[in-house]
Amino acid sequence: MPKNRNSFSSLALRRRGLASRAVHRVWAWVQETGAVTAQHPGRLRFRRIGTGTRLAFPQGTVFGEQWIELGDHCIIGEQVTLTAGLMPDLDLGAETVLTLGDGVVLGRGSHVIADTSVSIGSDTYCGPYVYITSTNHSYDDPHEPVGKQWPRMEPVEIGPGCWIGTGAVILPGARLGRNVVVAAGAVVRGEVPDHAVVAGAPARVVRSWDPEKGWQPPLRTPAPVPIPDGVTSEQLAAVALLLEDAADGA
User: Looking at per-residue confidence, does 87 or 57 come out higher?
Assistant: First the structure.
């Protein structure tokens, strides 16, 4: 290849690298500027947005925020939908319709649809693409399109400390207790007791906590060992390097 062609290719690669870095810097600025917090709510006027709570940019569909309360230190991922009411610009009365407790995490692409009361307890974590709804389509009239029939609505209550896996669906009328684990892809309806693990579609209890016997059936993996107090991130990184070196020498 002629020398001038090599020089041209190198210049094009350098320009492309500079452009790529510039795009990433601009996008990082857009994400930071477009995030919604109590100090910088943008166009959104929630009934309450707590200290340290942040809605990542870009947001999903958000309406009825006058009837939505977000607790402190919540993390709302990108493209998360939060709605109160069947459609925008409805008067939903004096009471809050959608409530998130303190420390709730909603993963990227999740939807919380509250046409009637929906509450999510403190420190509940949802993976990406979780769907929580208080409304379901009805199909009573076989001659009318399902989408045109008036939906059924039932309150949803999710207790504190739950973990809801990727792609799970929480249906109208569901009531989850404290520290419930919902497996990825599960479809939950009805009541789930405290300290239970549910899986499947429809979801059923596959493991539960007994105060005397512990988890039934017993856990198949040992409990994780917590990091001792006082250990720094630098020390953890050093241990990781030692383990890598040991693995390479094995």
Answer: 57
3-state helix/strand/coil string of the chain: CCHHHHHHHHHHHHHHHHHHHHHHHHHHHHHHHHCECCCCCCCCCCCEECCCCEECCCCCCEECHHHEEECCCCEECCCCEEEECCCCCCCCCCCCCEEECCCCEECCCCEEEECCCEEECCCCEECCCCEEECEECCCCCCCCCHHHCCCEECCEEECCCCEECCCCEECCCCEECCCCEECCCCEECCEECCCEEEECCCCEEEEEEECCCEEECCCCCCCCCCCCCCCCHHHHHHHHHHHHHHHHHC
The 3 state secondary structure assigned to 167-183 is: CCEECCCCEECCCCEEC
Structure tokens at 116: 């009637």
Strands 214-216 and 204-210: antiparallel
Average pLDDT over residues 118-141: 96
Which of the four pLDDT bands, split at 50, 70 and 90, describes residue 7? low
Dist CA 149 CA 127 (whole Å): 31
Which residue is it, tokens 């497996």?
Answer: 183
Would you call 136 exposed, middle or buried from its count of C-beta atoms within 10 A (0-12, 13-18, 19+)?
A: middle
CA dihedral 82, 88, 90, 96 (to 10 degrees): 10
Contact 133, 98 (CB under 8 A): no
Residues 6+ apart with CB under 8 A from 136: 151, 152, 153, 171, 172
